Amino acid sequence: MHAPAITGSGVFTPQEVVTNAELVAAYNAYADRYNARHAAEIAAGTLMAKQRSSEKFIVDASGIEQRHVMDKTGVLNPEVLHPLLRQRSDDEPGIMAEMALDACNTALAQAGREGAEVDLVICAASNHERPYPAVAIEIQALLGARGLAFDMNVACSSATFGIQAAADMIRTGSVRRAIVVSPEICSGHLEWRDRDCHFIFGDVCTALVLERAEDAQGRHFRIRSTRCATHFSNNIRNNNGFLRHTRPDGLADRRDMQFMQEGRKVFKEVLPLVSRHIARHLADEDVAPADLSRLWLHQANKHMNDFIGKKVLGRTPASDEQPNILQNYANTSSAGSIIAFAQQSEDLEKGAIGLICSFGAGYSVGSVLVERA
Ligand code: CO8
User: What is the pLDDT at residue 205?
Assistant: First the structure.
């Protein structure tokens, strides 16, 4: 058995930023136009008027201040309200592979490695731009990597589940060096015409290099253990599957073809699930909460993270103990906890212990216990 380690991390951040002010202005223009167009039905009581969105609500309810997106022109056009991404030819790299290449190259440079030294690529994300060929295999080819590659989807927990899969393969020796890459184009499956969720998501790509600890070229994080769990719930759901066209209304612009959630239920049900999961993982590893130097949590909601941090540590964590990046990135699904890890881990001293934890649709929860080496 070999000890797996995280030896490099990379984040590709799209250049375009949508502030809450821009988002709310676009949504409110859409709502006003919608209400004007449907004034007669609304007056007759056969249609509900659209309520306006508010910057104050968004910050107070979630802590999100802005998000990065792959295209803001469509997102901010009240007649469009979704990103406009050109159709690429089959001979060009796909958009997810392009984002992935950027993040992977940063992670490989940090690890002191070349693409050709990688023998496993897992593209772990909450949506893939096509079912086949796997996006991971395209990334493998662009990197010049060897071995095998496959796509994984466990929604917000895709990256941590991907880390567990890669770490286990490194432990047993079936692969020597892996990349877990998470290109998340959440803007493409967010319903921007729904004020309950239009503020939640952003786009990004993260990548991690995992290899045997003995192969590490420099400072790294040894993976002490991983733990993944799932519990079925319909409270976060998307029905845009491949059978869509077989349904009688298959081409309709149905609301459930985009991201749907019962946010308040998710909030209430996921918090105890995650707190218990982390507590058991730490206890099984004989790690006391006081021994934890850092918690890199899933980035969906600041209040959720505050609650989990307090529950795990038994006190209010300092901001550097439980860093949040969601104010800048919003929820980036599986990439959120990895952005926090990539951007806020360099300062940790040898021997420091930290925990990456993601949670979300499924429900799913994944935790990775790491030690600075
Ligand atoms: N502006 C003004 N008012 C608003 C707005 C708005 N934009 N939105 C809602 N309101 C109103 C509501 O209508 C409601 O009004 P009323 O009381 O009159 O009914 C009131 O504000 C309160 O609304 P909520 O109860 O919805 O507000 P909450 O305090 O619950 O906050 C949150 C909403 C922020 C969504 C919160 O519930 C939350 O964060 N929940 C947890 C969500 C979560 O963690 N989900 C995980 C999803 S991510 C995931 O699993 C990945 C899925 C795959 C990726 C998909 C990518 C697209």
Answer: 98
